Structures are given as C-alpha cells and as structure tokens.
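Lab notebook, bench 4. Still working through the backlog of constructs that have no structural model yet. Next entry is a single chain of 363 residues. Request: give me the structure tokens for it.
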Amino acid sequence: MRILVINWQDWKHPMAGGAEVHLKEVFSRIAARGVEVHVLSSSFKGAREYEVLEGVHIHRTGSRPVFNFFVPGKVRELEKKFSFDLLIEDLNKLPFYTMFYSRTPKKLAILHHLFDRTIYEETNPIAATYVYLQEKLIPRLYRDWPFIVVSESTKEDLVRGGIPDENVRIVYNGIDVDFFRPMPRYVQPTVLYLNRFRRYKRPDLAVRIFAEVKRSMPQARFLMAGKGPYLEAVKRMAARLGVDVDFLGFVPEDVKAEVMAKSWVVLNTSSREGWGLVNMEAFASGTPVVGFRVHGMKDSVKDGYTGFLVEYGDVKGAAERVLRILKDKNLRKRLSENARKFAEGFTWDRAAVETLKVIGEVV
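Model written out:
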C-alpha cells in the first residue's frame, strides 16, 4: 500500500508543533509496518526538496504562508510519479480541497481541532475571517469523507457542522511514557508554562494567573518555555506587572522532559486544543495540569483527578487551583500518581495501529 499525507509542515520544520509530533509518531510507525508513506509539506530555509525521515518519504514545496497554493500542482506531479492507494489531508490549518484535482481514488481527513472564533484571538480580522470562512466549508465539501479526529470535542464540532457521526472515528494521541517520566521535584515551588507563544494559547493569562499565585506564595517560581510571535509582548507585560518570570526560550526535548517532571504544576491556558499533547507530556511526567474548560482541554484533563479546570478566563479561579496544588503535599501526590497512571494508557503504538485499521477500511 502507498499513501500520500498532506500536512502544512513536517516535523523538521522550525514551526512544528503538536500536529507534527502526531505526524511523525503515527506515520513513521505505519511505515515500519510495510506501508509506503509519502508526506507533502511546506519548505523552509535549508530544507531539502526530498528526503527520507524515519522511513517516511518527505516532499517539500513552497513556503509555509503560501504552501496551499503550491499543493495542487505538486499533488498532480506526485500522482504521475507514484500510484497512491490513499490520499490523506491533515486539516491542521486550511483545507487543501483535493477533491477538485487529486486523481487518487480514496481519501481520508485527519483533524486535530477547528479554530472556530478563537482564530480572531490569533491574527488580524481579515486573516481571521479568511480562516473562519474556510473552516465553515469543511462540513459541506468534506461531508462524505471519512475522518480521524483526536478527541470527543473535535468530533462534536464536526458532527454539529454537518459531518455524519458514522464518518468520524476518534483515535487518541499517544505519549512516550519512557521518555517523559517522573523525577525529583525542584525544591522551590515551581509553576511551568510550556507551549508556543501564540495569542490563542493565552500566555498573557498565564502571567496574570501567576501574579495572583505570587501574592499568596512569594517563594513560588514561574518558568515559561517556548517561542513564538507573542513572546516579546508577554515579556513586556510581565515586566509591566512586576511579575518575575524565568523565560527559558525554546528548549530541546531532553530539557523539556526535565523541567516538565521537576515542576510542581503545569499551567496550560490555551483557549482551544485538539487534545493537548502538552498535558499528556505533563501527566507522563507525573505533573498535574491546571487550565480552562475548553475544547481539547476538557478531554485530556480530568478535573480533580489529573489536575483542575476552571471556566475560560477565570484568572482567580485558576490561581486558587494552582495554590491548592502547591500548598497541599497529599493532594499533589495523589494528582501526580493519577496523572502518570492516566498517561500510561495512551501509546503511539496503539494510535498507529488504530489509524492503520481505519486506513485499511477506507482502502
């Protein structure tokens, strides 16, 4: 079997995120099971037009901002060179509308989450409206497509939009519980934000939450790890509020695993997630998560069991939950044990096997 997956970025792209982790972990395992996997993604400075990574054939064309305009021509080129049994659209940002130009007979869509109106938090009104309206076309143009989604929330969005329930299968993300594992905690009570610095991830609210925490626990420390276009604005905001933050910048995977495991609680203030890989990395590390009760977050964070959820934007409520974890050793221990146990039920091997099962049924 030979398949073509279209995603905006491959996992070597400088802006790769959770969707690219999923791409690598699932499809490298599918390739290892004998399927010939090709990925079409955008190019970046220093990238090769073609290379093989983890057994997956990577084809790159166009830069990230205009990648979707290069996709039709490149798909037709690849289809002439290879005979694909299945084309998969990874609907990670905008649709590629391959039904209008692809000759591959069988098609499948993977969707992590829809931005919906949260896109207006991320970019200017014109660009946000462009994305918002394109998302509204998905239920109409992809109505007859089979879908793989990563959470109940994403399935609810699709079904509410008009995709038949029977067309949507949930395949949960996995986590490497050998790589992300518990370690001795920092001596100082430590709160961690580890995510991209994008507006819809709401790192600004994370700073405001910690400001409340600091008032009740002056000895607490706040780490913020990650990069993105909103980083400098958040730094200025922290300085303006007088909040002491250790900005770590981008951290490699081994450092990520260490700070995740040594921190006492992870603060995830995203306004919308597909599933929340950051949450699962924290859980595998035995670290509870505090966040908002929004799409994706409410699927991966079990309120009162692996962490706490409050209503979106409730800064004081989130700070109160963080303080409860920092101050109560028994609660912290219970949440930590629950989190690790929960994470151990999710593996990338299982995700790959279930994805391959759906692929087989479609083909």
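Notes after review: The longest strand covers residues 36-43. The mean pLDDT is 94. Flag for follow-up if needed.
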